[in-house]
Amino acid sequence: MNSTASATGPQTTTRTLADPDTPFAVVDVHKTLRNIERLQARADRLGVTLRPHVKTAKSLDVAALLHDGTPPCPVTVSTLAEAEAFADGGYTDITYAVGIDPHKLPRVMALLRRGVRLRVLLDSPEQAESVARAAQRAGLLIPAQIEIDCDGHRGGIKPDDPALTEIGRILHDAGSLDGVLTHAGESYFAYTAEEQRLAARHERDAAVAAAERLRAAGLPVTTVSVGSTPTAHAVEDLTGVTELRAGNYVFFDLVMAGLAVCAIDDLALSVVVTVIGHRPEYGWIITDGGWMAMSRDRGTSVQAQDHGYGLVTDLDGNLLPDLVMTAASQEHGTLTARDDATLPDLPVGTRLRILPNHACATAAQHHGYHVIDSSRTADTAPVIQAVWPRITGW
């Protein structure tokens, strides 16, 4: 297992999840590897390159699991801080999948000068002109992808937008046109397997249609990039696509479980908290893990089963039936029993783990991960194998 030194220094004695001060984030490396292998096998069957999005874990140590000690794989990032950290870690094929702010182009060019092929993303002629001018002034080629809007979720332009070929021409004339990229963000609200398959098909069709329009205008397209965690696990045909992206899948979360993209047992990220009080008159158990530990994300509130701020397990990861984190203030979490179930007897000092709604948001509340391996049995609380730092900032 790859590991880095703990932020608290070398460990001289074996530590378990019963030892660090709570709250803290835990990653189960066994489940993470299982999740990684599942999507890699799918990408291999579909005949496309898998370009994982590292925005969920933001960790070089987690990313190392993606390529098992072989040369670093291509990755997607959501911040230039991630791009810079991954470049420092030896990654040279990176897509920065957030619309480019021209003010950030000097940092992009600094990475290009280091030999990193860093692609930028844009969806307007103004951005394309900024990239072209910066490339000309610096004497560099800045590879760029045009963002395609496949479902009205966020940024991008429609495949039939007249601006598509205008943007493509500006980039091509600057030597910067790399391809097109789309993200089916609305797939997070596709509640059935059929809806997810349709979202995946539409995502593919939008990206391929945009690429074909550019090629018909005499503009070469190398990369046709698609992906979200739900569509990546639902897509059946990627003809015309060159690469598949996803990020949440390394950890999964309750939102993905609610979409049946994964099972609750696949969730690899949790937060350890401690019971610090009781309010029996309200049916509350109080912990020291509030929204600063879990985030405010309430993604399951729009699903068939609302899991509040998270489901509760014991320290070994066994679900405590009908116990839910239903409320949170900054440093306090409130656990209640669902549907008039009996509240379990959990004395002050009891340690629990909370499974999050949204892995990306919960991970972002922490500086790093305490790593365990649930495939290893033990008579004590799970042993901490390593402490892996996260990348922060923008």
Automatic annotation (TrEMBL):
<dbReference type="InterPro" id="IPR029066">
    <property type="entry name" value="PLP-binding_barrel"/>
</dbReference>
<feature type="domain" description="D-serine dehydratase-like">
    <location>
        <begin position="268"/>
        <end position="373"/>
    </location>
</feature>
<dbReference type="InterPro" id="IPR001608">
    <property type="entry name" value="Ala_racemase_N"/>
</dbReference>
<keyword id="KW-0456">Lyase</keyword>
<dbReference type="Pfam" id="PF14031">
    <property type="entry name" value="D-ser_dehydrat"/>
</dbReference>
<comment type="similarity">
    <text>Belongs to the DSD1 family.</text>
</comment>
<dbReference type="InterPro" id="IPR026956">
    <property type="entry name" value="D-ser_dehydrat-like_dom"/>
</dbReference>
<dbReference type="Pfam" id="PF01168">
    <property type="entry name" value="Ala_racemase_N"/>
</dbReference>
<dbReference type="GO" id="GO:0008721">
    <property type="term" value="F:D-serine ammonia-lyase activity"/>
</dbReference>
<dbReference type="GO" id="GO:0036088">
    <property type="term" value="P:D-serine catabolic process"/>
</dbReference>
<dbReference type="InterPro" id="IPR042208">
    <property type="entry name" value="D-ser_dehydrat-like_sf"/>
</dbReference>
<protein>
    <submittedName>
        <fullName>Alanine racemase</fullName>
    </submittedName>
</protein>
<dbReference type="InterPro" id="IPR051466">
    <property type="entry name" value="D-amino_acid_metab_enzyme"/>
</dbReference>
